[in-house]
Design goal:
109 residues, 5 helices
């Protein structure tokens, strides 16, 4: 894990933590995280950041982009064989379908 990967993770976690209180600031952090994680090919972490971005897009009323991000994250997790995260994506899709907020990592504590 290099510096850029660590920076990408830090940006994602900052965005996830800020999402409930400061969505515009959170969006900036998550966007940066997505760029970095894609650049360093950290696909599992990229897909996790996509979940956070989907929650932020849902909050902004952009349900179509939220669903697209969830589908992309699901495809990445399944291609990688990630065990736990596909269930998290399914729960996020179910929340989106019910018009309920997509749970964030910060809310899982």
């Amino acid at each position: 894990m290099g510096y850029l990967h660590c920076e990408g993770l830090a940006c994602w976690l900052m965005g996830d933590g800020l999402a409930a209180e400061a969505a515009p600031g959170a969006e900036d952090y998550v966007e940066r995280a997505l760029r970095i994680l894609e650049e360093v090919d950290a696909r599992n972490d990229l897909a996790r950041a996509m979940l956070t971005r989907a929650a932020l897009r849902q909050t902004a009323g952009d349900v179509a982009t939220a669903r697209q991000l969830l589908n992309q994250a699901d495809a990445i997790f399944r291609a990688l064989g990630t065990r736990d995260e596909p269930a998290r994506v399914e729960a996020a899709i179910a929340a989106l379908d019910r018009n309920s907020p997509i749970p964030l990592l910060a809310e899982r504590r």
